[in-house]
Amino acid sequence: QVQLVESGGGLAQAGGSLRLSCVASGRAFNMYTMGWFRQAPGKEREFVAAIRWFGGITDYVDSVKGRFTISRDNGKNTAYLQMNNLKPEDTALYSCAASRIWNARKGDEYDYWGQGTQVTVSS
Questions:
Q1: pLDDT, tens digit, for every residue of 20-77?
Q2: Which end of the chain is less enclosed by CB atoms within 10 A, N or C?
Q3: Which residues pair with 51 in a beta bridge?
């Protein structure tokens, strides 16, 4: 069992930055691929980024490439999402998730979810 708690959301201006954190409790954090998803009001949940449990290989949705960076610190059981050059369309509830599947990208491939942290970007 893995529990995930996100933090770091808030209000930012367009062009600004936020850093989200996801702290995991439980065992074998370093054996899970960690992902970030987001859901805006009235829209479906969207994959944002993932970092594999081995090799630190990352994956991003096209709309955030070059602006967002996912990372992890296995010693701290924490995954991060650094978000730069934020845009109003980045406004959403951001959730982190953990998967045993190495190249997980779809929501149903993730086993554990946090409650989410709200990110609001003003123009």
A1: 999 999 878 889 999 999 999 999 999 999 999 887 899 999 999 999 999 999 999 9
A2: N
A3: 34, 58
